[in-house]
Design a protein that fits this description.
The protein is an all-alpha fold. Helix content is 81%, strand content 0%. The protein contains 1 helix and no strands. The protein is rod-shaped.
């Protein structure tokens, strides 16, 4: 069996000639084949970001509701204290007001 010498120049010319046609064909094929995959991944990441954003908003609303509840309780306590102070200040009829004293 005899091995023939390889013509490197011819081989390079054939590879480059095939590449001129093959590279655009592979690019167009990849673009159309991978387009649905890329769109699906984009939607997945967008949905994941939207879910995270929704969780953050829910947490913020929950904290605001807690703060409103605490403020309402504080207002009720202050109102009760004011009513109590008024009741102490008015006293029974005929007695001096609480701020004048009997000294």
């Amino acid at each position: 069996m005899q091995i023939l010498p390889i013509d490197v120049t011819g081989l390079v010319a054939v590879v480059l000639g095939i590449s001129i046609v093959l590279i655009p064909v592979l690019g167009a094929t990849a673009r159309f084949a991978l387009s649905p995959v890329v769109e699906a991944l984009a939607k997945l990441f967008e949905a994941r970001g939207a879910d995270e954003h929704l969780r953050i908003l829910e947490r913020r609303v929950e904290l605001q509701e807690q703060e409103i509840a605490m403020l309402s309780q504080t207002v009720r306590s202050l109102s009760e204290a004011r009513d109590f102070d008024r009741a102490l200040g008015s006293g029974p009829p005929g007695s001096p007001p609480a701020d004048q004293g009997t000294s």
